[in-house]
Fold these 3 entries.
Entry 1:
Amino acid sequence: MGSYKQNAFKYATIVAMGGFVFGLDAALISGTVKFITQEFSLSELELGSVVGAPAMGVLLALVFVGYACNKYGRRTTLMIAAALYLGSAVASALAPTYVSLLVARFMGGLAFSSISLASMYIGEIAPPKWRGKLVSMTQINIVVGLSAAYFINYLILGWANTEAPWVQEWGLDTNTWRWMLGTEVIFALLWFVLLFFVPRSPAWLLYKGRESEAVSMLSKVTPETEIQAKIIQMRSSLENSNQDRSMLTQLKEIFGKPMRVTMIIAMTIAIAQQATGINAILFYAPTVFEQLGIGTDAAFAQAIYIGLTSVVFTVLGLLLVDRIGRRPMIIWGMLWIILSLGVCYYGFETANYTITETAVSELSSIPNSVRLNTLVDVPFDSDISFKTALIETLGETDARDYSGLLLQKAADINALLILLGILSFIGAFHFSIGPVMWVLFSEIFPISLRGVAIPFFTLVTSFVSYLVQKFFPWQLATMGISSTLLFYAIVVSIGLVILYIYLKETKNMTIEEVQLALATRRKT
């Protein structure tokens, strides 16, 4: 491998590490849901607010990130994001109240724009034939971070349940969730330091009129014979755009008729990616697995399989994105997602819940468990009706705190079918629309608009993500798990139809060639 190839991979790897910190930040909260709900006495919507706070934070950040990355550069903005991750991790671990935890999580969300910025930076330094693989490294790091978070949560929970002297001395048994969130500090600090070794984007340097520096940077990641052609292509993209580069003007250009196909593709995939419900599964993984009636400890263990599945299928997607192409991976991947959600819907919809007299006698950990005698041998055909009866019998607090144990004793459910359906859904997402959306975002916008376009459509997907995270606990409590998954499947089906009509293939094209392809309204 030539030195320019080594440099391209090195810089992309460091920048993509932001994906790892993102994944860690996003998934660590999944292990804390029960702890913080009990400690702060949270309602479903309050819990959704804590889990979804980063998604709300990124909504604010993305309003300014386009301005920041154009004015100060991609690298500087990434360093700001790393510092925000670090501050958020410290503040979250030490949060004394619900409000302070909410604010700390919101601060972390201000850094979530690092994902779109990483895709932007890598797309600007990567040769066309490598762009898909290098941009997808961000997604690889996200799922590695997710997997690491699930493992860390499982490990800390296991330690907390022991009676080792050091566990009590360090407070793992009484501050379990704080240790979970605090582990992010190490990785956020490491990423912040490594970003000092990354050069500025050549596209941004040319955008600022610093052509000699852009040439110097390109010499590190591009063969000498291709540098001048690359400069000409970037300059042409800048010159052919609207020279008034205010944010409003660029947004008007994005929504203008010449870019209508690009806008439809970007808007649809931005909504559909998060409307799959992926972050409901990822950020509430132990809660979702508890619905299978396998108990809390087993639910934490099963969550690790989500992380491992994510890694395997993201790697496969990374290896095949430039071979199969963007369009087939997204179209077939979304169909795969819909079928997987359908399997999960069927499994939950056909479940039954009944508490036996034997089960009640084994529930000694529940205060005054004889209260459950009124429910003995009473069949319930849905999780909603069962949970409603538990609340009426035990009260909201006990029903919530012991829900995992009660579901374990009462559920008659095809857990294996649903587990396979969930893992199939995770695999489908991370093989297709998960990483490929960021590849498309790095390709379909001209250089001059990318600083506004990518953050804007990331804003769209982040808003949908926030809605999913915010309302998932409420949906579980009011709609039930089966109807919630069916809702996701229907929304994704609508997105699939739109993308089938408009999405075109962009593999192995330069960014300039992509603009020409999207200017015509024909299917590829």
Entry 2:
Amino acid sequence: MVTEQNKSKRGRDILTFLASVAGIILLNVLAANYFFRLDLTEDKRYTIAPVTKQMLGNLQQEVVVDVYLEGDFPAGFKRLQQSVRETLDEFRIYAGGNLRYNFIDPTEITDEQQRNEFYTSLAQKGIMPTNLRATEDGKQVERLVFPGAVVRYNGKEAAVNLLKGNLAASSDERLNQSVEGVEYELASAIRKLAFQGGKIIGYIEGHGELEQLQVADLVGSLGEYYRVARGELAQLPMASLEKLDLIIVAKPVRAFSEADKYKIDQFIMKGGKAVFFVDPMNANMDSVGAGGMFALPYNLNLDDLLFRYGLRLNPNLIMDLNSGFIPLVTGYMGDKPQTEMVNWRFYPLLNNFSEHPITRNLDAVYSRFVSTIDTVKAEGIRKTPLVYTSTYSRIMEAPVPLTLEEARMEVNPQQYQAGKQPVGYLLEGKFTSLFRNRRAPEGVDDAQVQEQGVETKIAVFSDGDLVRNDVNPRTGQAYELGFDRFNNVTFANKELALNTIHYLLDAEGLINVRSKEIALRPLDKVRVREEKTYWQLLNLVAPIVLLGVFGVARYYLRKRKYERF
């Protein structure tokens, strides 16, 4: 006979069973209709940034990525290969079917002529080979590796260099830096092809700035992302200037008028961005090679403007033991001069960077006649140093004697104890106008002074040559920015300039993806940690499944018990 108490227990068990079944059904419905992914790794290596997800979700056509990292590689390159594959798998999910990729091994082409032609075509696209040395069966072998990819979209294509990082780091560290940069490099290429921005950059002229051929590579590279216009500041009305999103001031040698400074100041007050590549000192190798010179400060009439914004460019030059090389005649064989590459300590190699997204994992930057920068009080302005000289630097106050004999002199290490010196700064905040409590100067068409600015950003570097590309004297063609033609080495000058401008203009924050940090671990430790994430995921799901099983079992056990009465 079934009592009222047993009926009550049976009712509760039935409700528990139904609730468990309903919970399992609800979980399945949610899983089927709502997309979610869990990244349980400690460094979130599988997590794609929200800005990248949004960009991929807005693709209107298919993106095709050909990756040339296919083959049997050592552990470090396998890790990079796997990272690229995993990142593209994530991209494909968020792109909603508008992305596919192929891994290609260029060395599989059996015909030698076709293989060499293919190698050449990759090099012309910007994917340069790396000679990889490894030990196989106790023997040293060499293998040509192309650590790059080509991204295609709507008839356009862009090459992606996947082997990034600082050459001064160990091979393992550099490969890890490359892994950290995979998402940004691929996402940046997709954005360049599919979402070319409508923002406008103005290259300021009229004060002896670098000529068109001297910035050809920078302007051409910027043109892949933005619209670039050139114009003399004195002839630009304020209304035209305000249509720009960013201005570049690159190595002026003549003074700015008060009207010109007013235009720059009011442009910044109204939210415009600016990058200054300014030489405080007048120094050039043509005069040095002709018998020597004294480097003296330029009179650019920009000191008060930059001082108001929070910086002072000092009238000095930095010598650095970590420096570039120049060809120097060291003797003659008959009537033929014999040249050697010697250190020119006025050309510091900048290889100390902050952890900011602009400079993170950046390779060395080549500078010429660079000066120190001091910060001064500027209310509400955040000042971030970006680039430093090495710790073995020396500061030479103006006037600085410059002669090639300096390159021949024996170095006294005691003179190079100034420590690392910042030579590039990022300034962010609401700037105060230089013309606060002052009248607008004569010659401007908008005399209404905005004394307090809106939130904006500017960057200042104390070397105008950071963005100057050399020119081939025979062909008249511009070399790549950062290419040292005497030593056949390419430095990261272009990457520094592009990263800076991307950061200033990137309202969506894609440049911040460069901050991604992945801990460097041995390959077997990585495998163990990834296996642990599967157990962690199982630990999340298992209680729900066990609850359902327990509810079902309890119901049937109770049911059998009731049926015996």
Entry 3:
Amino acid sequence: MRLFKAILLLMLVVSIIPTVMVGWLSVSHTRELLIRDAQELAQERVKQLRLKAERFLEDPTEMVVGLSSVPGGFFTLPRDTQRSHIAAVLNQRQEVLALTVFGADKQRQPGLQAFAVHDMAPSAVAEHEERARALLDAGLTGVRYSDVVASPGGGGPVVTLAFPVGDPVQGYMAADLTLAGLRQMLAQERVGSTGFAYLADRHGRLITGGGDLGAVGEDVSKRTPLAHLIKQRDGSPDTELFHVGNFGEGRDAVVAAYSVLPEAGWAIVSEQPVEHAYRQVETMERRILAGLGGAILVALVLAAIFSRNLTQPLKTFMATSMELARGKFGVEVNLRQKNELGELAQTFNYMSKQLLAYDMETRGLYESLEKGYLETIVALANSIDSKDAYTRGHSQRVGDVAVEIGKEMKLTERELRQLQYGGILHDIGKIGIVESILTKQSRLTDQEMATMREHPAIGDAIIGPVTFLGPVRACVRHHHERWDGTGYPDKLKGESIPLLARIVACADTFDACTSTRPYQKAMPLEKAMEILDNLSGAQLDPKVVLALRAVLAQRGVRVEGHRQPVKLAS
């Protein structure tokens, strides 16, 4: 007992003296450290916001500027091809509201203007062209942005960019970009409980942001951080500016950081009232003092009770918890103490067993859910096949053949599952094709063929809202694209066609050759592969055709009228 008291007293002395010294030093230096931390946090926040804003602006800009580097030169392409390129930019980037092509004489080229009809009114298109002409008249040597204006439809701020094409200049291009997404991002950016971030142009006019700063174009140059930035930029306009610190005095004092987007010259600013930014300083000082008293008490309690009875059980718990964290559900703690630690061990063991049971149940539910997905997909495919007796079972066979090709090409399990779904659903868009065309026994007219060729886009629109079928959309939309770029609906070429879509296209063609149709009888495998070899490099990916040939030679596939896989003759 005397030894216990001596050790206890020694432990208290050894713990109290360092604790008091650390507490005193902590209180002395906490204010400076926390102030620095608050400013560093503001600095890091602005850096991140700048990266997001730059990325938001760069992505659609790169897409538009990419028109100037199309193979062969944009201005040498046929007018229809030029229109297709312009339409592709608007379809692929929702941020691009309008796009106009000007000749070397700075006159708009007839028929080479496109805009988002649902997002822009004719008056807005005219304003877009007016801003573009102003940029062209100012002289362009590269990409240049106009002042930001408010969208007439309330869709958010809009900026116009323009740039020359060719050297020497063959013409110009201009595009309107909506900053609605950037506005949404900054509106959601909270700085503590009362701070906010905003974006302003080089003149100190508001572009977008949180807080009650007003509408687009509002003059915010008098705000102390922005006023400081404008002053610094006037002194050294070519310097990359970044600053963080305290601005203003009294109730208007803020902790702020700002940075400049070099391409557009816009300023990204983060502000937070000083009293809120540094509130944690006082809170931390009180916590340190309270912790100092608590540390002395904890030292006494821990020295007397937990030193001998806690260390070893905790090590056991830690080791077992790590096993549980690594996924070894059902592991148990072997602790026989009849105290709280013993009860904790029993609770831990019960939790571990429950996790094991939940894991097994979850696996079963996942497998059942996946099975239900597949049954639903098969039912959707059957709804198409049932319209035409000649295509019954076609979708299922296409899915099966596509999976076999994927296995030969060493695709992952996830990709194989996507191939199965994509093969089954590739013709789902035929739901939207009138049955008189779908089941017509004679050759389709040009108008009927054009209608039939709409089924990939219809299928894409049907499965688009279904989240788990997102990776399958490429198979549905692009299974009629051709390797030489003459397919439909998007005229993709070569490896720009998604791999899964190329595999489904090959499986679809193969099943069409080996099935009986109104216009042909089922072909033998050798004849079918001869046709696919002829289509290799023109309609079909040569690598996929080779993979199909390997499958047929090694293990075969199921074709119409056969229950077992059929192989090529060796």
